[in-house]
Amino acid sequence: MSESKTEKAEQRTQDAEKRTDWANERTILANERTFNSWMSVGLGAVGVAIALRAVFGEFDPKWAAKLVASAFLVTALLIYWSAWRQAIRALNRLDDYDSEPMPTKNFTVVTIVMTIATLGTGVILWGL
What we know:
Distance between the termini: 83 Å
Structural class: mainly alpha
Mean pLDDT: 86
Radius of gyration: 23 Å
Low-confidence stretches: none
Number of strands: 0
Order of helices and strands: HHH
Helix content: over 70%
Largest sheet: none
């Protein structure tokens, strides 16, 4: 027995809704990967700051090398907080999702910890 046009239309609608749900899940995962990538870029900036100290150890004037290293630390902080803002905004734009995204609190905690560690690195670099 063949399905009626109404039943076929309902099936197509259900299939479309399922594809939309999957797209939301992919978006959530992509958002988390993007946040992670930006955190890695920020850590790279911290690594450059530390490397500058190692390479220019006894550079004269000492404050110049520290100033350049500090610029990379500030860049890292900007990257962390920009990534946080974008991750939160992306999650807020999604209305409904079946999968459970990482709680926004986790994005915040990671960003705060990275900020504290980067500021600590700056204190150590300026103290040397």
